[in-house]
Amino acid sequence: MATAIPKITLSSSRDIPFNRLVLSQSNVRRVKSGLSIEELARDIERRGLLQSLNVRPVLDGEGAETGTYEVPAGGRRFRALELLVKQKKLAKTAPVPCVVREAGSAILAEDDSLAENVQRLALHPLDQFRAFRDMLEKGMSEEEIAAAFFVTPAVVKQRLRLMTVSDKLLDVYEQDGMRLEQLMAFSISDDHTRQEQVWEIVAQSHNREPYVIRRMLTEKTVRASDARARFVGLDAYLAASGAIMRDLFEADDGGWLQDPAILDRLVMEKLHAAAEDIRAEGWKWVETALSFPWGHTRQFAEIDGTEVPLSDEETARLEALRAEQEAIEAEYAQADEYPDEVDARLGGIEQAILALEGTASGVRSCRHGAGRGLRQSRQRWHIAGGAGLRAA
């Protein structure tokens, strides 16, 4: 004949007025950690008490119940409720859901307190991500989710970034097939096919470190710190519909530019514009390129030009302009400002003088080679950082 299995009896639960509860000295939690009492109080104020307190009757010297109950398990919730009472947000006699352990139980109060704090399992990061995602899809903003769980919006953004990872890889992580740090590395890209290809390669390798995953996922991109990106500027790249890949879990130095073709086009456009400025100076030949072969400057020889003085006509013209300028300035020396037509004339005189002075100090003839053009190309090379132009 089969022996009947004895059935357990759960402790009764009921509402007890808060002013009849006291914190037990048997509560094992002494060190403050995790969510603060103030934050827990705000959470209870927002959504109510989600978990009952574990209490025991307080006995008098004769062993009779006094009507008061001590709280060995749930001390932080008790202190949060106590704070709400002090803030007059909760009535002293407000009923509090409690699970009541019988007086004289063989289970020690310290046992209950320790069990409640030890027999907890932290939420899996994947479950947290899915919960955040569901809340986002139901209308909550990232800031509202962060405020509800007392974390920064950056933490929520990081968890939600896991939405960019392939479901296949999420399943691998859920089955403990990869570490969280590896999963985070995959979130740098939203190309699921490429993610899975990289995992197939990495899974067969002895080196599965996150940096290897990031390097493989970004091998066809350009770092934001690249000389070409700095030459063009990220604002111009984004304005041209270029995409930037960012890493929310590691310092990424500005990220990775995903469209090298757009970047190279912008570099060439900017180089062409610089070449036109140089060509306007009078150079016969200007060449632009993303890069030049090593030693390409060997065919150039830097020489000193020969200055040609101004002609008698140019000299006379320069002296006449300076005399006119001095006469106008002397005539209006006491005036607060020049009349518009006089101001315009002075501007024209200054431009003409600068043009003549520039001619006098410039190189008027050159035998051969790049001359100033080579120096200009070197200057532009440093500006472009890998892209350059040369002039002759």
Q: How would you characterize the overall build of this protein?
A:
The chain is 47% helix and 11% strand. It has 392 residues and is α+β, with helices and mostly antiparallel strands. Among the domains are: 12-118, Conserved hypothetical protein from pyrococcus furiosus pfu- 392566-001, ParB domain, CATH 3.90.1530.10; 312-361. The protein contains 16 helices and ten strands. The strands form three sheets. It has a five-stranded mixed beta sheet with strand order 1-5-3-4-2. Residues 363-392 have low confidence and may be disordered. The chain is elongated.
Question: Which sequence of SSEs, written as H and E, runs from N to C?
Answer: EEHEEHEHHHHHHHHEHHEEHEHHHE
Write the CATH homologous superfamily of the domain at 12-118: Conserved hypothetical protein from pyrococcus furiosus pfu- 392566-001, ParB domain
Strand order of the largest sheet: 1-5-3-4-2
Biggest sheet descriptor: 5 strands, mixed
CATH topology of the domain at 12-118: Conserved hypothetical protein from pyrococcus furiosus pfu- 392566-001, ParB domain
Number of strand elements: 10
Which CATH top level class of the domain at 12-118 fits? Alpha Beta
Tell me, briefly, the overall form. elongated
Radius of gyration: 39 Å
- Helix/sheet category: alpha+beta
Range of helix content:
40-55%
